[in-house]
Every structure is written in C-alpha cells, then in structure tokens.
Amino acid sequence: DPMREYSFPYREESSRAFSRIARPVIEVSLRQRQQSGKWVKVFPYADSGADFSLFPKGICRLLGLQLKAGQRSQIQGVGGKAAAVYLPTVEMRIGETSFKARVGFSASERVPYLLGRLDVLDHFDIRFEKDKVCFIERED
C-alpha cells in the first residue's frame, strides 16, 4: 500500500511588503457535528511555526460546536496582545486521509486560518518546496 502524497501549489496573493507573494494554502475539510456530518472546506496556510491549527469563531459555529467546549489556551497576537482560544477535537481531512485533531478556535473573527503541527504531524510529514507544499502520509 503506497503512502499517499498530496501536494498543494503555492497561491499567489498580494502582500504589503511585496507586490505578490506565493503562500502555502492547503485545502482542508472539517466535519460538522450535526447529524448530516457534512464536510466544510477551509483554506488555511500551512504554518510550521504554529503549535496548533487556528480558525475564527465563525468556523466553530459553522461546524455546530460550542466555542468554549474545548480546552482553553491562548495565543500571542501581533503586538503581544493575548487572545483566548479553545481547542475542541474535530474530524479533519486532508486529501483522502481523515483523522481527529485538536483545533484552536479564537473568540475573535480576526485571526488567520492556520494549519499548525498539533495532531497533523502524527499523520503527515510536510515538505515545503519551491513552488508547492507536499503532505506525505506517514506509516503508523
């Protein structure tokens, strides 16, 4: 059974510092808690420096989760302001691979969508290349 590999070409975006910049945007699906259990697509940046994945509270609502249900933590924002985040466990899918992951939801809408290391690196090795980022499924 060969290991599955998913690659995501960098997405050109505008930036304050540069006119255009290529960023590692990944297609990730998160499963709703409702009976239907529909998958909701989100497009976070793959962020090797982020301890955990992070999404705004609107995504938490969309998934049918109570914001404060998860373990409480905090993040240091730009400028050193701390913001509360909650870390419930959700079902996440990257490519054809689905798994449980603790995901941080901010009490604010003003946070970037980030795919961090927590529970993701248990399932994938991630390789940043010049023009794409590759997720290589790990063998248990």
The tally of beta strands, per DSSP, is 14
Structural class: mainly beta
Low-confidence stretches: none
The mean pLDDT is 91
The proportion of residues forming helix, as a percent range, comes to under 10%
The biggest sheet amounts to: 7 strands, mixed
> How many helices in DSSP terms?
1
Strand content: over 45%
Order of helices and strands: EEEEEEEHEEEEEEE
Describe what you observe in this structure:
This protein is mostly beta strands and 140 residues long. It contains one helix and 14 strands, in the order E-E-E-E-E-E-E-H-E-E-E-E-E-E-E. The protein has one helix spanning 57-62; strands at 5-9, 11-14, 20-23, 28-31, 39-42, 45-46, 53-55, 71-76, 82-87, 89-94, 97-106, 114-115, 124-128, 132-137. Strands 4, 5, 7, 8, 9, 10 and 11 form a seven-stranded mixed beta sheet that branches. The protein has a three-stranded antiparallel beta sheet with strand order 1-14-13, with no helix packed on it. It has a two-stranded antiparallel ribbon with strand order 2-3. A hairpin with a 3-residue loop joins strand 13 (124-128) and strand 14 (132-137). The chain is globular and about 40 Å long. The mean pLDDT is 91.
